[in-house]
Amino acid sequence: MKTSRHAKILELIQKNEIGTQEELSARLEQEGYQVTQATVSRDIRELKLTKVALSNGKQKYAVLAETNHDMTQKYVRVFKDGFVSMDMAQNILVIKTVSGMAMAVAAALDAMDCHEIVGSIAGDDTIMCAVRTVEDTSALMGRLRKIVGE
Question: For the whole prediction, is pTM greater than 0.85?
Answer without folding.
Answer: no
